[in-house]
């Protein structure tokens, strides 16, 4: 792929008469934000097919609308323009937003085949990595959001983004994208405002957890520090070189696939149906998880760990509004098992039972107990542990993000090449199924695809 950077600009939030003070806005970090202080940025890319996107049309119509609507939506989401800062005398960092802060926007052009790059088939990970920006990070400060808009002349364009998890979770991330899209699409009708349902809530006092949890999470972040001299830093821990032979694919489970997998779980599990929590989340992740263990070689004695993030907006007391822009997720780890549990024909059903128990347990344990369990579990992870995690959710509704030129043709989390994870989203054109985004070495990918497709053929052939 040949990529040419056209320009790098800075987009300011539109003026807001309610914020006229020269003093910066300070957003303290809650206990649920602290886990993400040194996390690597989440990088995503959203593709829009538009055959009429000539260079002239892009630069005279598309780019100006995207830039103006970005400025307008940042009026409400202005913390995205700020920085995470950590003064050495403070016990924890905080989000600081000055009136002159901006979001970096890179404009680029690619000569690649849009249908290939934006498709769901096998393609090199390097084709996507150039489509997302990075964040600016120093020891005591990091930007929180940056964007890259890339034109594929006469084919379409894509929006790449890098965001720091410390400011918001996945719900807030998708809420911002949909709010931006809504304003952009409304510009043609002279509408420059957002409905109340898209205006974020920034009040950190909504996160009602015991103060003791904060000290435990701070201790946990120190436990995993790579700094030998004891100095605190905003820089993420090193991940090593990204493999050059990684390939990506997006596989789909239809609603019918999910239902048949549920029936298989009911049929083959030794547990009664009321003991199993057979949600789409459990079924999809159990199937992918069991295929991944086998694709990675299936060492019977190797311990494994599976992680997912549970949204606690409706589980806290009082509940947290859906429009809360911050972190309201708890990391959950399924630990204490060996790969032998997921091998063979019973592997999928075993994974269903493990995940079912985990999800059902969310309702009976408090948030503090769950976080303590996560921290204790991570401290016990051995160097040879097979770790997998899932990013995303089938409830986000990202495919509804129409900027005025149609809904996206695809959406990828690019940054899953930096850690053992896969993505999960709703299907573009059907409710009830899921899209699974994977990034693996070619040999592992071939094995995974074979296992994934064979398993679906087996359940499809069963009458």
UniProtKB/TrEMBL annotation:
Stretches of the chain forming a coiled coil according to its record: 248-275
Annotated keywords: Acyltransferase, Coiled coil, Transferase
GO terms of molecular function: acyltransferase activity, transferring groups other than amino-acyl groups
Keyword match Transferase: yes
InterPro entries, sorted: CAT-like_dom_sf, Plant_metabolite_acyltrans
UniProt cross-references to Pfam families, sorted A to Z: Transferase
Protein name: BAHD acyltransferase
Provenance organism: Brassica oleracea var. oleracea
């Amino acid at each position: 792929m040949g990529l040419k950077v056209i320009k790098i600009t800075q987009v300011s939030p539109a003026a807001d008469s309610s914020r006229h003070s020269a003093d910066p806005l300070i957003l303290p970090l809650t206990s649920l934000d602290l886990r993400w202080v040194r996390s690597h940025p989440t990088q995503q890319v959203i593709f829009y097919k538009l055959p009429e996107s000539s260079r002239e049309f892009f630069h005279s119509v598309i780019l100006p609308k995207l830039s103006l609507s970005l400025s307008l939506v940042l009026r409400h989401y202005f913390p995205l323009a700020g920085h995470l800062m950590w003064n050495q005398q403070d016990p924890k960092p905080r989000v600081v937003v000055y009136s002159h802060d901006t979001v970096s926007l890179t404009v680029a052009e690619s000569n690649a085949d849009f249908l290939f790059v934006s498709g769901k088939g096998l393609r090199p990970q390097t084709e996507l990595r150039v489509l997302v920006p990075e964040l600016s990070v120093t020891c005591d400060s990091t930007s929180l959001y940056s964007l890259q808009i890339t034109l594929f002349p006469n084919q379409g364009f894509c929006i790449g983004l890098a965001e720091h998890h410390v400011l918001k979770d996945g719900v807030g991330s998708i809420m911002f994208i949909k709010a931006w899209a809504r304003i952009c699409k409304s510009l043609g009708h002279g509408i420059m405002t957002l409905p109340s349902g898209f205006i974020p809530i920034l009040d950190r006092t909504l996160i009602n957890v015991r103060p003791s949890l904060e000290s435990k999470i701070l201790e946990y972040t120190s436990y995993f520090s790579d700094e030998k001299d004891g100095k605190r830093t905003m820089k993420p821990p090193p991940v090593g070189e990204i493999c050059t032979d990684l390939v990506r694919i997006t596989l789909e489970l239809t609603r019918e696939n999910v239902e048949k997998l549920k029936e298989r779980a009911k049929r083959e599990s030794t547990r009664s149906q009321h003991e199993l929590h057979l949600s789409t989340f459990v079924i999809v992740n159990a199937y992918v998880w069991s295929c991944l263990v086998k694709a990675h070689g299936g060492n019977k004695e190797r311990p494994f760990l599976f992680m997912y993030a549970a949204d606690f907006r409706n589980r806290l007391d009082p509940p947290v509004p859906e429009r809360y822009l911050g972190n309201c997720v708890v990391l959950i780890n399924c630990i204490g098992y060996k790969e032998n549990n997921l091998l063979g024909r019973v592997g999928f059903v075993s994974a269903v039972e493990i995940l079912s128990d985990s999800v059902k347990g969310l309702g009976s344990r408090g948030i503090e107990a769950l976080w303590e369990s996560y921290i204790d579990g991570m401290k016990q992870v051995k160097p040879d542990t097979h770790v997998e995690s899932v990013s995303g959710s089938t409830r986000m509704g990202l495919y509804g993000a129409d900027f005025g030129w149609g809904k996206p043709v695809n959406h990828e989390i690019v940054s899953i090449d930096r850690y053992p994870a896969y993505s999960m989203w709703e299907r573009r054109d059907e409710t009830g199924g899921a899209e699974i985004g994977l990034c693996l070495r070619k040999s592992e990918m071939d094995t995974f695809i074979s296992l994934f497709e064979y398993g679906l053929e087996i359940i499809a052939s069963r009458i």
